[in-house]
Amino acid sequence: MLNRRLLRVKVMQVLYAHFQNSDNSIKNTEKELFHSISKSLDLYYLYILLLLEVRDYAIGRIEFGKNKKVPSPEELNPNTRFVTNKIFSKLAECEEVNKYIEKNGNNWVNFPEIIKNLYSNIVESQQYIDYMNSEDDSFEVDKRFVAKLLEKVIAYFEPIYPTFEEQSIYWNDEVEFVLSMVVKTIKSIPEDGEVKLIGEFKDEEDRDFVKRLFRKAALNHAEYLVLIKKYSKNWDVDRVAYMDIVLMQIALAELTEFSNIPIKVSMNEYIEIAKHYSTEKSGVFINGILDKAIKELTENKTIVKKGKGLIENA
Fold first, then answer.
1. I need a surface site. Which of 1, 51, 60, 126 has the fewest CB within 10 A?
2. Where are the domains positioned within the chain?
3. d(CA 144, CA 134)
């Protein structure tokens, strides 16, 4: 499933656009939100298919070498460790991966130069060299190699990013988030057992979280803005980054709507998102304003936390 932080970011992105475009209805923006979430899952699968496409390219290179009129000794007896990596095999056999390909195709076939150049980068990397020369052929070594391949090589392969931008405007700001989820998936693959891939949502609770968070923030944004201005006496709100205002409105919606989410969790999430998507001073500003607003909302019982460990937190 897409993690909660990415879901919060999705809500932030569509609300930012919604408040800038008064012609769009809440219903239409909500549809846009869920479409955006589905596109994030596409990016997740695209990374997995990229691994398999590079492996298939490597297989093709080996076959080409063997079929030369006068192949070299290395071409006749190639090191096949990369193409027989057990994680690649698990992904290739995964039912969910194959269903996705059957339904959507494998878009990497349209970018042969990307695959060729990425393979060259991989072969030249220290991670690849160490892996191919290692005598340890255990499942865990295969797993660690693929995770490092994603984190240390593919993540820094610049030509891939314009390709992402061409395919979807939704992927511009979330590649890092989604890549981390792919790495997490790789690290969780068991030697004995099936590969478990993520879905759009962990469960109905996560789907409900997104829907309620969006609607609460959209419907009550004017009320939240009044509260934000009240505690921004030392700041010119009209000159504050608009993204900060949107983030605080969403944060207030979460704080008041979800009694089972600790205040500290919500605060930390939106401060971290602000650091990534807004200005250098955003985290300090948002923390200061929300801290004062939370005190008022807790005293007048607008924020009420329930459950073990949450009452004290409130």
1. 126
2. 4-187, 220-299
3. 13
Sign of CA dihedral 147, 102, 202, 47: positive
Rounded Cα–Cα distance for residues 164 and 245 (Å): 29
pTM of the predicted structure, to 2 decimals: 0.83
Q: Which overall architecture, per CATH, does domain 220-299 show?
A: Orthogonal Bundle (1.10)
Under the banding of pLDDT at 50, 70 and 90, the label for residue 276 is confident
For 11-45, what is each residue's pLDDT tens digit? 999 999 898 876 778 999 999 999 888 888 899 99
Q: Tokens 């979807």 identify what position?
A: 168
Model confidence band, residue 310 (pLDDT cutoffs 50, 70, 90)? low
Q: Over 90: is that where the pLDDT of 311 sits? A: no
**Angle at alpha carbon of residue 211, lines to 206 and 217, rounded to 5°:** 120
